[in-house]
Amino acid sequence: MAHTPTTTAVHGTGTGGGESGWKATASRYSLLPLRLFLGVTFVYAGLDKLTDSAFMSASGTGSIGETMRFARDGAALPWLVDLALRAPVGFGYAIAVGELLVGLGTLLGLWTRIAALGGALISLSLWLTVSWQVSPYYYGNDLAYLMAWLPLVLAGASVLSLDAARRARRLRIP
Hints:
The chain is mainly alpha-helical. Helix content is 66%, strand content 0%.
């Protein structure tokens, strides 16, 4: 006779040969460190840009305009840089506010998959423009950030999140 694990054993709440309780708990919380890291990093990046008057300029040392002009010729998509160079300060604010919203959504676990998709798109655009010319490719951090966002795009935030609280509330409502 074949052994069929009970529901509690499969979910790690029993002792019937399935996953142990600590393994199930670790599995549920496994994306939390990634979520915290990406959330804090993107909030910091957004605030750093918004509070740096040198960055929020069309020209000058450390400006968004200078950064984009420097990256343009080595970008995989130079037309994307050209598009941003039409209004570099506006683009700088858009990136900064986008990073801030993505970071806050990720930290709070609010519409986490949407926030993570936003983070992935920001990282993809930065990889294809600013860090494309980095050689070897693995020295450029934007590709690593893009890959880091993908588990959150796929899985969302299962614990310690507003998304989880909304799911729990929906399940309680008759």
